[in-house]
Amino acid sequence: MGNARKLTGAVWGLLSRTRVVSRHGVCNAPAGSSQRISAFQYQKQQFFGALEKQTSGLQFTRKASNTATTSIPLFQGSIGKAETAKLLVEKGVKAQKQVGYWLFGCSAWVFSMVIIGGVTRLTRSGLSMTDWNFLGGFPPTDSSKWEAEFEKYKASPEYKRVNKGMSIEDFKFIYWIEYGHRMWGRGLGVFFTGPFIYFLSKGYITRQLALRLGLLFGLGIGQGFVGWWMVKSGLEEPESPYRQPKVSAYRLASHLMAAFGIFSGLFWTALSVVRPESHYQGVDFVRGSAKLRKIAIPIAVLVGLTAASGAFVAGNDAGHAFNTFPLMGDTWIPDGLLELQPWSRNFFENTATVQLDHRILALTTLTSVVAMSLLARKLTLEPHIRRLINLTLGVSVLQVTLGISTLLLYVPVSLGAAHQAGALSLFASVVALLHALRKPSPAALRTLVKPL
Ligand code: HEM
Questions:
Q1: Would you say residue 282 has pLDDT above 50?
Q2: Does 399 contact ligand 1 (Cβ within 6 A)?
Q3: How much of the chain, in percent, has pLDDT values that exceed 70?
Q4: Angle, nearest 10°, between helix axes 383-408 and 351-376?
Q5: Which of 40, 75, 110 is a domain's end point?
Q6: Separation of CA 43 and ligand 1 centre (Å)
Q7: What pLDDT, on the 0 to 100 scale, is given for residue 450?
Q8: How many angstroms separate the alpha carbon of residue 432 from the centre of ligand 1?
Q9: Which are the contacts of 112, defined by CB distance < 8 A and separation ≥ 6?
Q10: Are residues 284 and 394 in the same domain?
Q11: Across all residues in the chain, what is the average pLDDT?
Q12: Does residue 435 share a domain with residue 400?
């Protein structure tokens, strides 16, 4: 009782002489306003109002600590639903674990799809199947069916211009790779929908999660169509008789970027299922994370841009030119960077420009990640966030090393595939870092500020 009196007295004193944080900045408290309890509630409302509305947790915490946070106790009463972190899965921890594992499994499946897709491209297998249907169908089962399939391939520009005289055994090899890639994608459809329906029927999945997963499922189906749209571009006769048939670099980049998008959507959702709330030991940790988030978001964008530029390197076969590093041939900056018209085409279609772009973006990414990890040393951060920063740094160094080796060795399948896997691993570590840096819910933040 005595404590309660001290508390309201302190609040009352503060309200009459200090300024409090509001959503719009700093305003004067209503000195002498009606009852003590309403003044206290006013203070609380301003305090949490600022927390909820501020997009920058940093701004909030700085203002709060400049004012009355240390002396004003926080109201520990019932917490409104809107203030707590939203659970995506209902019916307890067991359900949460099951759904979480399933979604991590789906992300890993998409990851493997990206690698298989890379191997398909690097082994030039992607154009071996000259038609497509939604369910995929069965592969040839006897020699006459293989012959028929091979005849269809023989009519394609790739056979006529690149693989003329290929044996049926070699054809079977590239066919199986492409068939495997397509069927692995359909397998993911089954692995996704089966448990989804089961978890829905058990009532584990909230409306919000169902909508999010529905959207990701739609993107997954769309990705199948984008894949075929990409392959179709490689089955067309090239405009010039001297050019090799290959898929459009734009379509290849769309297919790869869509895969990155689907992967990160699934991975982020899986993380949100198992970790609905960010964990912080104190307000200083929230402040440190808010600072780091401001750097980590642009880095995520940079990694995405570097990956997209890599897709254009792959799509233009630019890895088979300028196989030197750091120089490009004999110079730092090769000639003819803007020779295509209009100039913007050069960034997507000109071998030299596309490769230079990719190098610059990759090295900028690495430098930014190094800078982030140096800056992070000065910040108060949770140990698991530090681990994620170290992971991101390690994967960036590995990825740049892989990229340079891929280039110097004229894109062998193993290194090309490893470089593709490295790109997605780097993206995944940045996504995990951003997830760990999420703002805490108002309710969680409230528990971090010590009561009197
Ligand atoms: C942050 C660093 C990097 C990222 C995120 C990244 C990402 C990518 C991605 C996503 C691809 C497309 C892969 C594919 O479709 O198969 C790619 C291709 C490529 N990258 Fe990088 N890359 C990075 C650094 C580098 C560096 C430093 C070099 C060399 C200077 C390099 C050289 C290449 C080459 C030659 C290819 C084409 C490989 C192929 O044809 O399969 N990369 N990169």
A1: yes
A2: yes
A3: 81
A4: 150
A5: 75
A6: 54
A7: 62
A8: 21
A9: 184
A10: yes
A11: 83
A12: yes
Q: How many C-beta neighbours within 10 Å does residue 304 have?
A: 19
Is a pLDDT exceeding 70 seen at residue 9?
no
pLDDT of 83 reads 60
With respect to residue 85, please indicate whether it lies within any of the assigned structural domains.
no
227-235 mean pLDDT: 92
Q: 80 lies in a domain? A: no
Q: Is 310 in the pocket of ligand 1 (CB under 6 A)?
A: yes
Per the CB < 8 A criterion, the answer to whether 305 and 358 are in contact is no
Q: Which of 276, 307, 333 is the last residue of a domain?
A: 276
Question: Does ligand 1 come within 6 angstroms of the Cβ of 21?
Answer: no
> How much is the average pLDDT of 158-167?
91
| Shared-domain flag, residues 323 and 400 | yes
Closest C-alpha residue for ligand 1 atom 2: 362
Pocket lining: 117 vs ligand 1, CB cutoff 6 Å: no
Calculate how far, in angstroms, residue 419's C-alpha sits from the geometric centre of ligand 1: 6
CA-closest residue to ligand 1 atom 39 = 314
pLDDT on residue 25? 30
**Can you give the pTM of this predicted structure?**
0.81
Q: Ligand 1 within 6 A of 400 CB? A: yes
Three-state secondary-structure class, residue 449 = coil
Q: Which residues of 52-85 are buried (b: 16+ CB within 10 A; e: fewer)?
A: eebeebbebbebbeebbbeebbbbeeebeeeeeb
| 246 shares its domain with 112 | yes
- Residue 294 CA: distances (Å) to CA of 63, 66, 415: 18, 21, 33
DSSP secondary structure letter of residue 100: H
Phi first, then psi, for residue 73 (nearest 5°) are -70, 155
Q: Identity (one letter) of the amino acid at 188? A: L
pLDDT level of residue 364 (50, 70, 90 thresholds): very high
Distance of CA 391 from the midpoint of ligand 1 (Å): 19
Do 47 and 110 have their domain in common? no
Q: Kindly report each contact of residues 279-285 with a partner whose C-beta sits within 8 Å and lies 24 or more positions away, as own/partner.
A: 279/382, 279/384, 280/382, 280/440, 280/444, 280/445, 280/448, 281/382, 281/448, 282/448, 283/61, 283/64, 283/65, 283/69, 283/445, 283/448, 283/449, 284/380, 285/380, 285/381, 285/382
Domain hosting 226: range is 90-276
Burial of 139 (0-12, 13-18, 19+ CB in 10 A): middle
The amino acid that residue 168 corresponds to is I
Handedness of CA 396, 398, 402, 404 (dihedral sign): positive
